[in-house]
Design a protein that fits this description.
The structure is a single chain. Helix content is 40%, strand content 16%. The chain is an alpha/beta fold and 321 residues long. It has 2 domains: 89 residues, no CATH class; 213 residues, no CATH class. Strands 1-4-5-6-8-7 form a 6-stranded mixed beta sheet, with helices on both faces. It has a two-stranded antiparallel sheet with strand order 2-3. Helix 7 runs antiparallel to helix 8. It is elongated and about 80 Å long.
């Protein structure tokens, strides 16, 4: 097996830790009281409903992306991984569906929802385009589940369920912070008139650009709640207090998940700082700026321990100097 460089070792470790933190964040977002707040401000059909009403519309458990070797939740009747021949696999961060009460057409009361926790708002490609792809797959995967194209089925495509792909961008550029974008299908007459009420608004992509701090000027409860949740400087008790101030129903599940997420965030920051410090000292010894003795003293290790750690980090150390 090829030996990792010092940088490679640190990058691999940080990626593993960030993967765990991603899961913690998704578990918080998947808590129904939090999810209901997000749905209320992003799903058009739910904007006039209370969060309590929306919670009741979320059927079953919420489905979270499966991470290898970690416990997952599986929902009956919802496919987390969709396949097409030659297309590979798509994973959704959080998948669920709501069923609207007192809908005039019961078959169309069901709305499929995908919620994505996105770190970067500019990852090198268009998030809107990726969201449209996710929506398209959520629609195409409904074939023979929610609708059919059989000649005996008179409704056919009329039974396609509407889909939403909601992207929560947490590391957002200042110019985009505290903003919400919507991409959807719209009808435009290029010539003549047509008053037919055709059903075409089947997909919506929502991009939520979360601010770094709470801002009362946004007028958005959701943006402030999300700002609280991702604040790296705020401890768990402060977060829970602020959530209650925003009338969030802080359940035992939310309390537990917020504490886990906050603790892990603090752990990653602490580990990252310590690794960065150790890496800098290893590099100084490697470049001849520090002796091994001085490097060991700075990290509180014996010289033997320091040499061993330096080797683990990918540096070649053959003897004490």
């Amino acid at each position: 097996m090829k030996e990792l460089t010092a940088t490679g070792t640190i990058i691999r470790s940080i990626l593993q830790e960030n993967s765990e933190l991603d899961l913690r964040i998704k578990r918080v977002l998947a808590c129904k009281p939090i999810l209901a707040i997000i749905i209320k401000e992003t799903v058009t059909e739910c904007m006039k409903m209370s969060c309590c009403e929306i919670e009741k519309c979320i059927e079953g458990d919420v489905e979270i992306e499966k991470v290898p070797l970690l416990p997952t939740e599986v929902i009956t009747g919802s496919s987390q991984e969709d396949y097409l021949p030659g297309e590979g696999m798509i994973r959704y961060d959080i998948r669920t569906y709501i069923r609207l009460p007192e809908c005039e057409e019961p078959e169309l009361s069901k709305i499929l929802i995908d919620l994505e926790a996105q770190k970067e708002d500019a990852p090198g490609y268009s998030i809107a385009a990726r969201g449209l792809f996710y929506c398209s797959r959520m629609i195409s995967s409904q074939l023979d589940k929610e609708f059919t194209v059989k000649s005996s089925d008179k409704k056919k495509y009329q039974n396609i369920k509407k889909v939403y792909s909601i992207w929560i961008c947490m590391d957002t550029a200042i110019k985009r912070q505290n903003s919400i974008e919507r991409y959807f299908l719209n009808k435009e007459m290029l010539f003549g008139t047509n008053d037919d009420d055709n059903r075409y608004d089947l997909l919506s992509v929502i991009i939520v650009n979360v601010g770094k701090k709470i801002s009362e000027n946004t007028g958005s409860r959701m943006l402030n709640v999300l700002s609280i949740l991702i604040d790296e400087k705020m401890d768990a008790s402060e977060k829970l207090k602020f959530l209650k101030n925003y009338d969030v129903s802080v359940t035992n599940e939310i309390e537990m998940e917020v504490e886990k997420m906050t603790s892990y965030t603090a752990h990653i920051i602490e580990v990252g700082l310590e690794k960065g410090r150790a890496q800098a000292i290893f590099q100084c010894v490697n470049d001849g700026d520090f002796s091994i003795q001085r490097g060991a003293e700075k990290l509180g290790m014996s010289e033997d321990e320091f040499v061993a750690e330096m080797k683990k980090a990918g540096y070649k150390v053959t003897e004490l100097v």
